[in-house]
Amino acid sequence: MPSWSDFQPYIVTGxxxxxxxxxxxxxxxxxxxxxxxxNLAFGAVGAMGAFIAYSIIQAGNPGWLGWVVCILFSGVVTxxxxxxxxxxxxxxxxxxxxxxxxxxxxVLFGAIDLVWPxxxxxxxxxxxxxxxxxxxxxxxxxxxxxxxxxxxGVVIAAGTGxxxxxxxxxxxxxxxxxxxxxTATLGVPVRRVEAAAWLGCGLLAGLAGLMLAEMxxxxxxxxxxTVVISSxxxxxxxxxxSISVTFxxxxxxxxxxDMLTPITQLQPYADMTPFVLAAxxxxxxxxxxxxxxxxxxx
Length: 298
Prior knowledge:
Blueprint: H1 4-35, H2 42-58, H3 63-90, H4 94-115, E1 133-137, E2 140-143, H5 144-166, H6 168-178, H7 180-185, H8 190-216, H9 220-237, H10 243-259, H11 273-297
Antiparallel strand pairs: 1-2
């Protein structure tokens, strides 16, 4: 087994990665609660935005321009998809809703592979000026990028929780999660609420894609599928309802994933972390429900 000092750097990167998964999971939860759609195209939208940002920066434009375009592109694409297909998906089952967004993910993945073909070399990346060391803990360097990634997860999770609880739009989203038809009969502008949810999910997708591209490089497969699988696992642990549980689960997934890296025997299985943790959590929760029902019936 590696020594504790071998694990320490991966705790930092794992927390940063968990912050990205957290803000991604929040985006998935908010959209699902408002529309019932599980957006499996989340990673693909952010990935394409990140590749566009990379091209803009490589053309000699300021870095901030590429970052803004990435986030806005992701927001507009997701909003456009929601406006066009959202009404038709509203009355369909969860399987149809999920498969439709998976189709969008595959289309965008194909477009990325066509426009930015892989050359077989090292993946290009988007560099932030925040890569400099912020401070050191026990001779362990913590970069500003690590701090920003974790802070974004905290701020997005806390801010979204407060938004859903205290704002009019957030209250409407929570009401739609309980009963969409009754909410509409009460005079709530359902289409506007859904559009806001799609837009918010898209903006978070762009932000997540940008941060992950900076930390892990522009690997289209990782950007398209890894982030959505990990954030979806966190959201499932939160039962697609609890933002706080989703946030904690995302951090745990990120830390465990990275801490498996120095263990040679387990490192090839690190990408299985979200599946394993989600399965364990769902089994525990389901067994708890069975025990509760047994006590009630008894």
